[in-house]
Amino acid sequence: MSYDNNIHSAHIPVRLQVTSFFSGAATMILELAGSRLVAPFFGTSLIVWTALIGIIMTSLCIGNWLGGSLADRTPEGRLLGRILLFAAIIAALTAFGSNFVLTGLQGLGLNLYVSSIYAAVILFAPSSVLLGMVSPFTARLALQNVNSSGAVVGRLSALNSAGSILGTFLGGFVLISLLPSQVIIMIVACILAALSVIIYTGAWRKVIGLFVLGVIAVGSYYGFTHGFPDAPRGIQVDTAYNHLSIMQMTDTRNGRSVRVLITNPDAAQSLMYTDYPDELVSEYTQFYDLAFHYKPDAQKVLMLGGGGYCVPRYLLAHRQNVSVDVVELDPGVTQTARDYFNLKDDPDMRIFHEDARTFLNTAQSGQYDAVFMDTFNSWTSIPFQLTTIETGKLLRSVLKPDGVLIVNIIASLYGPKSGVFHGIYKAFNQSFSTMMIFPVSAPDARYSHALQNIILVAMNTNATAVRPTPSSLTAQLLAHQWVEPFAPRPDVPAFTDQFAPVERFALMQN
User: Fold this and answer.
1) pTM for the whole thing?
2) DSSP 3-state assignment of 267?
3) Which CATH number fits domain 279-506: 3.40.50.150, 3.30.230.10, 1.20.1250.20, 1.10.760.10?
4) Low-confidence ranges of the chain (pLDDT < 50)
């Protein structure tokens, strides 16, 4: 009977409950904001996310172990307060020093795996270890009777998990879209410093905690209003899905000013001449004009991937009687295109903000003359769900019987970097009888191992049918067609929804 009574009478001080809850929230906010901190330097690929989550989880495990051992040896609230205060200071230093660290790592030229792990270890492991120490420490301080230990640990664990849930939704749905990543981490530092003040009992220790909290709060305001040291060049925009960089450059071919939208550091997603926004800058985007060579009466076009909306703007400006449906996952990208890339409302353009695969799953059959797919954020950021046999069937379904599919793929034709292209080729070849390959930069067989944009044109009509006499521009594009025999690699499977190892093939070195 006494065992049950002790369980029901277990009491946990409010300050420990608050600490457990908000330390869990801080951990998840730190992880989500950390991904955006790294994005301008190493992107947001699966490799970056894996390194970040793996290192933080490892650090939390180490912190749990150390915190439990330390709490048994010195079960004092002031020590927990000191841990929280150190975590706050380290988080603040991470916010202010991250650009220096990431710039240095980027300059080393390491591969993405190593760079991502180093970045996660240097920037997030120290604070994560300290945060991992909080949970066992609060449990040890709350324990008054061994008979109620299960109830105490369970309640504190539940509070920590509830805080993690709040941090996940608050960070992912709200904070990242409203504030710069460094400011969010400074807010986390403020939370941790405030928790240390709550935990401290001595007046002079509370004063130290309040002083640190004040310094961090001032630093947060300064960073928000004036920026953080060594920030990436250009305008930085965080959206619900992406970190965007907008930069101004000069086209070395003609000296003209070009505005560039970058979603990953190793690729420019959209480029626009500032003096004539409706002209195409990127060479690969000109190949979408091939749709009007293979289907001269094309009028209704579906564009998967909006980016800076350069191709839709070009089509509406240069093609009469053409309407365009654009599917862009991120409303923030569309707003950025409105703000910086001359995107304007047009009665002949409809914009759908949803995943391209989700759109295809419910789209009406046979409604498009041409489908343009440009959904690679970079060489290391590939939406696998748009590379599969199942996607090929959906693309064929939304096209008219004589419709044309044009896909932009970043890969090499042969060699170590060719796996992604071969997997997509095999997948789409199951739905289209005619497949034509157009290497954009180097169609010569001597450069078949070069990483470049490769345009895949797929149809279910005869490619040798009589076509209109091509314009000079179209003739230049047709000259890029790969005319050598093409044999897909036997070691690369046709990608499917169940198995599409795009990351493995994208980062394969040999």
Assistant:
1) 0.79
2) strand
3) 3.40.50.150
4) 1-9, 509-510
